[in-house]
Each structure stands twice: as structure tokens, then as C-alpha cells.
Amino acid sequence: MRVVVALAVEVGIIALALQGAVTGAVAMTALVLAPAGYAFSYVRRARPSIVLKVLLALGLVVATMAFLQTVRSVTTVDAARIPLSGLFLWVQVLHAFDVPRRRDLAFSMTSSTTLVAAAGALALTTSFLWVLGVWAALAAAWLWLSAAPRPDPHAAPLAIRIIAPGPRPRLAGVRSAAVAGIAALCLGSALFLVMPRLPASLLRTPPFSLGHRTPTPSSTDSVSNPGLPSAGGDGVVDFAALGYPGFSSAMDLRARGALSDQIVFRVRADQPELWRAEVFDTYDGSVWTASDTSASGLSLDADTQSYEPRYPPMEAPLPPPFSNEIVQTFYVSQAQPNVLFAAARAEKIYFPSSGLQMDRYGSIRSSFLLDEGMVYSVVSQVPVVPTPLLRLLPRPNTDAPSLARYLQLPAELPQRDRNLAARIVGDADSEEELPVRDASGLLRAHRERDGRAAPRGGRPDEDRDRVRTGGAQSAHGVLRGPPGRCARVGRGLLPARGVAALRSHVRCPTGRTGLRKSDRCRRRRLDRAADP
Amino acid sequence: MRPSKRAVGLLLGAGILFLIGTNVQAGWLYVLAALLLGALAAGLVLPFAALRGLSIELVVPDEAEQGTPTIVELRVDGSSRGVRRNVTVRDTHLEPVDGLLPPIRRGERIEVTTLRTPRRRGEVVTVQAELRSNAPFGVAERRVRAKLLARTLVLPRVFPLGNLPFVEPIATNARAVHEAPRRGQGPDYLGIREYRAGDPMRHVHWALTARHGRLMVREFEEERTRRLAVVVDTERDEGDAWTPLDRCCSAAASVLDAATAQGQGARLIAARPGLGIDVLSRADRSEMFRWLANLQPSGIPLEAALGGLGREDLRGIQTVVIAMPVWGRGGRDGLYGDVRRLAHLVPRVVCVLVEASATDAGSVAGGLGASGADVRRWGPEDDLAEAMSSRGVLA
Question: Touching check for B102 and chain A: CB below 8 Å?
Fold first, then answer.
């Protein structure tokens, strides 16, 4: 049992080291000292240990002083986790030298759990599963071994005789242990699936920290995307392996290319949500642009240490329960443009630098590029209006002047597209029904045509029947498909904006999501709730 | 099913991890919390199968002596599939014992031999034993009561007393018991017969004479030995083990054992619930010990038992030994009077005062000594042999 506990503690130390909570030298020292401590305490388990306890107490004082020195340089509560992990590591190592009883081993196992939990709080990748799996097996072994009752020394039997009808099966013990372990694993998995994902309620300051602090080459109010290649001869900026041309001042639908599968950032969030980066309101048939490029600076709230955007009064968020507050923490893995990704509508931004700017569409830009290692958090108020309630909304008045900007279409739009839009809408009598009809109608329309990829640089109005192969699909209010046609037909139905955004590709059941370069795609979001 | 502290710990740990995981958005803490809850759930569910198919049997002796280690064998048979682990058996036969069993596989029998010291005197009947298991994770303990039947009579404890000053050895080699009685002028009745010329009139049994219409007389056993009468105070008792009544019975048994070893006969007198004053005579040693083993608190004062003893009841008795607990400081004038009367009827009256630690038997001993009794005081920590060989109060 002592060996199992020592191994579990070693796994905890390794887990912390893998997450970078402690340096390699500290981890190696702990990995050597902890088993040595268990062996030492086993040898001395029957002797009085007053002097040893005093020495261990002195060691704890030294570890605490080192922790206090380290924690002075910490600026956020989140960043304090790492020195705390180090402190607990030393507490665990020192405790290993004085575990004479079975009860002390239980404390060690609890400490091992804490080490693994600290590592789990820092882990961002699914590779932590291996560490957790090994630790879980050791923990189950400890539960199994320590559950055996200790024989009462005062009622020790004189003799125990086992009368078996035949030879005892060798693997019976292994089989029963496997049954217990599998039962625990299955029940744990089931409980994990039904475990509620509650919004963070106690956390005062979500994590944020600076990466390499690379300033943008241009002014703050414009978008800098260092990964983009230069424009081609036709003026179109194509995809690069690490650069998506949509994250710039315009989103050109003629751009072609492919992105790599590298993970660009990881996100911790309560629920899946679209990460909006940029919004455009003008469409010329090929390129989405923003008609208003002015941006205003965001001020830092001294109480919350966050930047709080100010929206026009008419864009006030829906009151609960028709909106949901979610906290998203972004861990940047690859260099990104100076555009902050966040679920609409951002209420508080915990960012490690000043100089944040926001345009009138809610796009947020920083004065630094999002470098590897940067961490920022955004608290957003996401509308969650039930579908039956949305169906009560009347059809929008497309003749209203305030919506003209979002219904704007190129003048050369063919009449057949307008006819298609009118046919799709039909007799829809509510705003909610429009995007549904839009989606199904577009899908049907594309199935009817033998589409081919539009030629490079070809204008949609010139090859209106040669759209890219693919279907329109509705998922979480997002239409995905041939964006040019979506835009042309969709804007004939209801007010719409173009949004350059990201959607999670790798979703971990633990709530962490990872995003690959290839997940970047052009989207047109029918953002009704946020749209005026 | 009883959850253990470990279950509370796992639940608490999972809750803390869930809370932290929620607030720092660390999904791996959800996984860790779910694993803890999974172990908890498995630990709550699996013990239901941990005791399935087990049967238990106790092999016990018919008789045992209080305070003397006795062998009791426990047999557990497994008949279901799988391995039954962490099984403990708790039974209270003679002495509460928690026995940890090795893993039990299908078709196996585990025989556990235990050594138990009976704590109480009297008949011990055990009708069930408790099987427990906390397998596999020690999260919860499943308990099942298994039916069985085990019966043992616990005899009073006997201390070797050696030669007692008030038990003189007899001069004959014939044993006091185990021989066919012969008619004589002894103290014990032998039978009833018709009157013959020469029979003394004081032997006439008037009640049977009136019933049969003929003159009937009692026949007596020939007196061949000295006799000892032991009176046990059974008025009340208290405590769970080695109670005052147990000690009185132990003192009586030890005196009887010493007396029979000296060839003396014995007569036992005590009040018994529902029977009143009961007298056991013409019994062998084991029968007398069984009689003592079954003595229970009767609620009848010692004064009533002694007051009922007449000259006929004490025929042939040389010594009356009274084993009585001392309950308090209060004077017992009635008892002193009865002892004084007995002292006139028999040559010697010995009072064995069983003292509890909190009582002061000095006044009672003084009163009994003044009444003509030879007082022996047996304290809770004293050796009975020493107490019986030294006089507490001179008569």
C-alpha cells in the first residue's frame, strides 16, 4: 500500500511538472525525495519521531517563506496557482518523511489528489488523460488495498482453515479487481456526462497574462494580420498556412487556399459558442467591408481590472433568463492578428495590456498581436431566446430606413436571385421562420444545380450557376455554405451582416475546446438578436 | 448499508473539485470529480453483491466456565460466483468477536477457530451473526444478519480454594455422593413407607396418613458425611460482566468444589424467580454448577430465604455458607437476626461478603460478625482463596 501511495504521489509530481507548474530541477528533486521519504518513514515507523517532526516543521517554514517571496510578484489570482502548486509539492515531499501509519498514507493520497487536481486545473490538452488514467488506477488500487479491515489483535483466531473443492483459481482476484475498476469507471463516466456545467459564480478575476508583447505594425484601430501573404496580381489575398485573409479590413470571398491543422488557441468556456472577431455590413458581391471603420478606446475598470465596452442604449442586452453570461478564457498557441475573439456580446474583457479599441459593430482590437502564451478572458452576455418566443416576432419591415444598411446588395444582382429569395420566403409570417426557410431553400437550390467551383477571381454574377459544391446547413444559427450565394440570397430575405468568426473544431468533453487553422471559414451569420 | 467516512471524503472532495473546476473553468477537474463520484457510486453498489451466497455456522461447546477461554469454531461457506473479500463476521456468542475472513471463493469453506472468554454466567443462546463487507473500496459497509443456532451453558467460575478452615475433611474413604443411599437417620429424605412398630412418632407424615387412612412415616438417608449448605443471595444484580451475582455464584461454586474435594456433601439454597426458595440436595458437582449457572435475580430478599430455613431444612448441616453481595452502607437488622438464629441451629455460619469497589462493607461485616457469623470479605481486586482463608471479622 505504501508503494502504491508513493507511486500516486510521483504521478502527481510528474503531472505538475508536465504542466509547467514547477521547474524541472524542482520536479526531479521531488521525484527523488518523495520515495526516499516513504522508504525512510517505513523504516522508522515504529520509533518516536519528535525530532523528525521538528525538522519537517522547519522545512515547511522554509517552503512557506519561499512561496511568500514568489507570490509577491504575482499580479492575478490565477497566476498564484503556480507558486501554490510549488508550495504544496514541497509540503507533500516533506510529509513523505513522516507517514508511519495507515492513516498518514490516507493523508498522502489526499495530497496526491490535490497535486493531480492542481495539474488538472492547469492542463489544456487531452494528453493529461494519460496522467489522470495512471493516477486513477493507482488511486483505485489504494482504495482496494486500504479497504481491507485490519484484523483485531485482541480477537486473533487460533487457526484459519480453508477447505476448497479444488485448486484455487489464480486470476480470481484480478478479475474481481477489474470488475470493480470497470464499474467505477463506467459510473464515473455516466456521472461525468450528466454533471451540470454551471457558470462561474465565485471567480472574481478570470485569468489573463501577456505573451511576447509584439506591437502591431500599424495603428491600433486597424487589423494587423502578420500571417497573411501579399496580395496577388488580381488584388486578392489568398489563404496562408497560418493566416486567414478574413481577419483584415475586408473579407474577400474570392480568396482561395487551405489552412493548416495547427491549433491556434484553446478556449475554456461554459458552453460552445461562436467566437466573433470582425463584423462587416457592406457587400459588393465579392468583398465584405465595414462602412464605418472608426473605433473608440476601452477604459479599464479599476474595481474589476477589466475593460468594459460601452454599447449604444438601443443595443442593451436582453435581461435574464433571455441571456446567459458565459466566461471564455483564450490560451493563444499561435501568433494571431490583433483581433480579440469573443462570444457576442462582450461585457468585460480581462486583457493583459491597455489600448483596446472597439468599433461600432463590436469588433475588438488590441495594440499587441495575440502571441503564443497570451491568455485573456472575456465575459459575454449571450442571448438565449427560446424558439417559440422568437416565432412570435413579426417579419421585419425591410422597408425601414434603419435596416437599409443590412439589406444592401450589389446593384448588378440578377433578378433570378431576388426571385429565389422571394420564393423561399413565401408566406413566412415571423422573423424566426425566415432563416429556417433560408437554409432549407438554399440547400434545395444547391442540390438542383450541378455546381462547380467558381473560377479563380470569377465574379458570382458572371457564374451564377457555377457555385461551389456544398450544402447550406443550419447549426446554432449559423449558415455554412457557399458564402457568396448565401449573402446574395440571404440579404434579400432579412437584415444580415457578414461576420469573420471561428467555431470550435476540437471539442473536449471537459469543456476545453481547441481551434485549428483550418477551422477558420467564412461565415455569414444571421445575427438577428444583436442586429438593430 | 452504512456509508463510511471515506464516502463522505470522496463526496466532499468531488464537490470541492467541481466547485473549483466550475470557477476556474478547468474541465479536467470535472473528470477528476466524476472519477471520485464513480468510485463512490461503485463502492455503494458493489457491496450489495459482496455477501451474497454466504452461510455461517457456529460450532460451540455445550458448557463453558465463566472467565475461562473456550474454543469456538466459525464455519463460513460460499456458494455464489465470484470472490467475497473483506468479509468480517461479528457474533456475540460467549464474547463479542469480529473475525476477519480470508477471501472466499465459490464452493469453499472457511473454518476459523477462535478463543473466547465467556463474560456472563448462564445459558448463552445465539441465533444470528452479522456478516459485514466493505469491498471493494471501503466506501460503504454492507451488513447482513445470518441465522444460526448456538447454545452454551456458562458455569460459574471456580477458583481453587484448597483447604478451607470451615470445611473439615471426613474420616471415611467413601465418597459423599455417587453411592446408593441407605436408610438411616441422616438429614435427607429417602422415601415414605407405612408405620412399623418402633418408628419414632416425629417421623410420621401426617398429610399422607390422612390421605391414605393408614399411618405413614418418612424414611431418611443414612448420614455418612458432613454436610455444607450454601445460600446465595439472588435478590438483585447489576452490570454486564462479572456482576455481583456472578461473583456470589463463583464463590459458592468454589466453596462447593473445595467441600466436595474434602468428601463433604452440599446443599444449595437460593431464591429463584417463579420458584421461590429452591433447595438442591443430593446432587453431584456438575449438577450443582449447572444449578448455580442458571441463577437469576429473583427480587426475593436474602432475609426471606434465610427466614424460611427451619430446623428440618438444616438437618445434618455443619456449616452454612452465605454468599451475598454488599449493596450499600445501610444496616440490615433483619439479616442480622436471621444469621443469629442460624448460628443457634448449625455449628457454623460463614458469610462471604462480595464487595463492589464503591461500597463499604465494614458496617455489614461488623453486624454479621456480631450476630455470630464468620465473615469473609471478597473485594473486587482480591484473590478469593486469600479472602476465604482469612477472617474479615471475628465472630
Answer: yes
